[in-house]
TrEMBL record:
Primary subcellular site in the record, as a coarse category: membrane
Gene source species: Selenomonas montiformis
This protein's name: Flagellar biosynthetic protein FlhB
Summary of the function given for this chain in its UniProt record: Required for formation of the rod structure in the basal body of the flagellar apparatus. Together with FliI and FliH, may constitute the export apparatus of flagellin.
Transmembrane segments annotated in the record for this chain: 54-71, 98-127, 166-184, 209-231
Length: 375
């Protein structure tokens, strides 16, 4: 008894040989790359590879760049308004003063925070558009009863994906913490000197330290975001991988069952053959070679050239000749012409110009033959 059947590409059950295995066990493995339809359906459901760290890095970067660029304006606006409020401590606490202070705060926020907020919003949308594309759906926020199941919740909490996300978060904390420690350990020695500076100078020095620290941390987050973006793309592809059977089923859904399509094509060929055979009795002559090819020619007054009413090879040629005999259509043997017509024309085509002379001779012969019979 053989353990492996090479002709069937699988192994019969066998307990004697250690090399006996069954390839059918791997039939359900998701080894095939996701098709474009699978990716498109997943994208509609919001299942796409995107990195929140990359979005965070860009948002922080543009936010701190604008704050640094507008720092003087922001500092001056806040200082001016604060000085104004503190220089009028004896104002009565009434509705008019409260409204005026509230309006002043709104104006201050519009001058200082609004440009930063708008830039962050635009950059956040642009980064997400780059990662995901223009894709709006409510699948992710729709109510799903299975999410209320505590068993499913524990399954998600202790799943492989949750473990990977936990490890990623710990690594991010450790890496960012290490860079912060290195930066602050070098700056802490210089900070006590700020007590000898005035407020403006101290704030200026502190802002430089904060901005340098922020840009270093953003650089680290940006590198982590790029790596996470690549990982998320890879993980999404792994999640969307398909089994061979799923690929076959999808092809059947999109392109149709091959067996059904084959039957449709067969039916179409039969209908076309039936229509072609109906044209044979209307032909003026059948040109043969005489066994392998048969071409039916039809010509009537007003036509620019004779038309190929039917053509066939071997069995189809024999059927054309049988119908022609039953309909008393003349059959003329001309091997070169039959081969040339079969090779250069399709059913319904006019005879090519280079064959006019040969076809005219055949038709002239047929017309003379018909005239003699009538006489």
């Amino acid at each position: 008894m053989k353990c492996m059947e090479t002709s069937e590409l699988h192994c019969r059950p066998c307990n004697k040989s250690p090399f006996c295995f069954d390839l059918q066990r791997f039939a359900g493995d998701k080894t095939e790359e996701p098709t474009s339809k699978k990716r498109s359906d997943a994208k509609k459901k919001g299942q796409v590879g995107r990195s929140t760290e990359l979005s965070t890095a860009f948002v922080l970067l543009i936010g701190f760049v604008i704050i640094q660029a507008l720092w003087e304006h922001i500092y001056t606006s806040i200082a001016t308004y604060t000085t104004y409020i503190l220089s009028h401590p004896n104002q009565p606490v009434d509705t008019e003063n409260i409204i005026r202070i509230f309006i002043g705060i709104i104006e201050l926020l519009a001058q200082t925070a609004l440009p930063i907020m708008l830039a962050i919003m635009i950059v956040g949308l642009a980064v997400n558009l780059f990662q995901v594309g223009l894709n709006f759906n409510t699948e992710a926020i729709s109510f799903k009863p299975d999410k209320l199941n505590p068993i499913n919740g524990f399954g998600r909490m202790f799943s492989k994906r949750s473990l990977v996300e936990l490890i990623k978060s710990l690594l991010k904390i450790l890496i960012i913490g290490y860079f912060l420690y290195r930066f602050l350990s070098r700056q802490l020695l210089a900070m006590p000197q700020f007590i000898y500076f005035d407020l403006a100078t101290s704030l200026g020095q502190m802002s430089k330290i904060v901005f340098n620290m922020a840009f270093q941390v953003i650089g680290v987050i940006f590198l982590l975001g790029l790596m996470d973006y690549g990982y998320q793309k890879w993980q999404t592809t792994q999640d969307l991988k398909m089994t061979k059977q799923e690929v076959k089923d999808e092809m059947k859904q999109t392109e149709g069952d091959p067996q059904i399509k084959g039957k449709i094509r067969q039916k179409q060929r039969q209908m076309a053959m039936s229509r072609m055979m109906q044209e044979v009795p209307k032909a003026d002559v059948i040109v043969t070679n005489p066994t392998h090819f048969a071409v039916a020619l039809q010509y009537s007054k007003g036509m620019p050239a004779p038309r190929v009413a039917a053509k066939g090879q071997d069995l189809v040629a024999r059927r054309i000749k049988d119908i022609a005999r039953e309909a008393h259509v003349p059959i003329v043997e001309n091997r070169p012409l039959a081969r040339a017509l079969y090779a250069s024309t399709e059913v319904g085509d006019l005879v090519p110009a280079e064959l006019y002379q040969a076809v005219a001779e055949v038709l002239a012969y047929v017309y003379r033959l018909k005239h003699r019979r009538r006489a």
